[in-house]
Design brief:
Blueprint lengths: L3 H16 L3 E3 L3 H4 L10 H17 L3 E6 L7 H4 L4 E5 L4 H11 L11 H6 L5 H14 L13 H17 L6 E7 L1
Parallel strand pairs: 1-2
Antiparallel strand pairs: 2-4, 3-4
Helix pairs in contact: 1-3, 5-7, 7-8
Length: about 180
């Protein structure tokens, strides 16, 4: 309900204090992006949530971890409360090849050399590569006889192109950031 988010923020910080726990906010940009102008729909509630979070961060003596793909959207006042910013860059070719191997568990049913696919997958994140693999595995598992299931290079490349096309359409995602508030 409108207004409950601020109460939940206070409760989360209180419980973290009591349990001496680390607080983790995934996709934190939903809470810490710039405040909205008065007059916009729900602006009072949105700004109240951000103000409550900043007040709780100021009072909290523990560790808060926030992740986002939209670091540039953080409110300036929030940035002052974050002690460390750690950027995770997109994987290079060797890392992409390792990620593909991790997500394609049956080497006898996939192309022997994943290097070319890793090169073609430039600009994709680990999560993107997981989706590439899952979609290619699904495409390669359509035969009623499981012994004939194979993931081909063409299947993987088609999924790489699909993922890259989707990223171009949503071009704000170039890297992930991990933000730590260490008080």
């Amino acid at each position: 309900y409108l207004g409950d988010t601020a109460k939940h923020i206070v409760l989360a910080f209180r419980q973290a204090r009591e349990a001496d726990a680390v607080l983790f906010f995934d996709e934190a940009d939903s809470l810490v992006s710039r405040r909205v102008a008065a007059g916009e729909s729900c602006s009072t509630s949105i700004n109240q949530n951000r103000n409550t979070l900043m007040q709780e961060l100021d009072r909290f003596g523990g560790v808060v971890v926030m992740t986002t793909n939209l670091f540039g959207n953080y409110d300036e006042a929030m940035l002052r409360r974050i002690a460390r910013h750690i950027e995770f860059r997109l994987p290079d070719t060797a890392m992409r090849e390792q990620i593909l191997r991790l997500h394609l568990p049956n080497p006898e049913r996939v192309p022997e050399c994943l290097r070319g696919i890793a090169v073609a997958a430039h600009g994709l994140s680990g999560g993107d590569l997981l989706n590439v693999c899952l979609n290619a595995i699904e495409a390669g598992s359509s035969d009623p006889d499981p012994a004939k299931w194979r993931v081909t290079e063409d299947m993987l490349l088609a999924q790489v192109r699909r993922a890259q096309s989707a990223k171009r359409a949503h071009s704000g995602r170039e890297s992930s950031n991990l933000n730590l508030s260490l008080n």
